[in-house]
Design brief:
The protein is of the alpha+beta class. It has helices at about 1-25, 30-45, 50-70, 75-85, 100-120, 190-205, 230-235, and strands at about 85-90, 95-100, 125-130, 140, 145-150, 165-170, 175-180, 185-190, 210, 215-220, 225, 245. Helix 2 packs across helix 5 (about 100-120). The chain is globular, with a radius of gyration of 21 Å.
């Protein structure tokens, strides 16, 4: 499939660039940065929450159209034709349930990735280093963190193109990237507590999987540092499908 080949090319181009970043702690050329940022953009749009957003959006659109047309055989046929070939729909008691096809999800992902890549390349990217092997970055199945850099209304969600936001991505146990607006690029060695803070954000955003090399620390909501044993016990307890893996490889590679 063409879309799968596109994904494979992005991942293949990023692999050596990420390996060099993890090994040497530097990004290198603008072309190398572009390979890494393409991979980051792809990661951001392919994670479970983003895919669920695509499902939810299509469901909302279908519900709106269906409610306007009314529950008739003709309206059901119209809705089915509008969704074909990207999705199928089931009707029951004047309600609809949309099922996006895998190919449609991939198409939405590649479209979103291209737009996001352009936005992310406008940011300045900072290399962050952990202070030692006792302060590893962890990784998850939703590793691209987007947060405000100042206090805003809790009803306002950050966007990748919005000012006063940062993008954090762990690239390996000892290296992460931070995408910022305005500030010049620099390299920065974090304290053990700062690494724990980023790990706490990664745990909070993770859907089903965590990956780590060693015992790690997390800064919890009470601003207290917790060891991985306590963190994993609570995290797994929130859902039986959740899993944490001790991996000898670099999570971002």
């Amino acid at each position: 499939m063409v879309l799968e080949e596109e994904f494979s090319k992005i991942e293949s181009a990023a692999a050596p660039a990420i390996s060099t970043l993890v090994r040497n702690g530097v990004i290198g050329s603008r072309e190398t940065l572009a390979d890494i940022v393409r991979f980051i953009a792809l990661q951001a749009v392919r994670v479970p929450p983003r895919l669920q957003q695509a499902d939810d959006m299509q469901q909302q659109i279908t519900d709106f159209v269906y409610s306007r047309l009314g529950d008739t055989p003709a309206s059901r046929k119209t809705v089915e034709s509008l969704l074909h070939p990207f999705a199928s729909v089931q009707f029951e008691r004047a309600a609809s349930k949309v099922h996006l096809h895998r190919n449609a999800r991939m198409l939405f992902s590649i479209t979103g990735y291209k737009q996001l890549f352009t936005i992310l390349m406008q940011r300045n990217w900072v290399v962050l280093r952990s202070p030692n092997r006792q302060a590893d970055f962890i990784c998850s199945d939703d590793p691209v963190l987007l947060h405000w850099t100042r206090v805003v209304s809790r009803h306002l969600s950050p966007g990748f193109a919005m000012e006063h936001t940062r993008v954090f991505v762990p690239m390996g146990p000892g290296v992460a990237l931070l995408g910022v607006w305005g500030a010049p690029p620099y390299d920065y060695e974090l304290s053990q507590r700062q690494v724990a803070q980023f790990n706490g954000e990664l745990v909070s955003q993770a859907s089903r999987f965590l990956f780590f090399r060693n015992d790690f620390e997390v800064l919890n909501n009470s601003r207290e540092v917790e060891r991985s044993s306590a963190v994993l016990l609570k995290w797994k307890g929130r859902g039986p499908e959740r899993s944490a893996s001790l991996t000898p490889t670099e999570p971002g590679a």
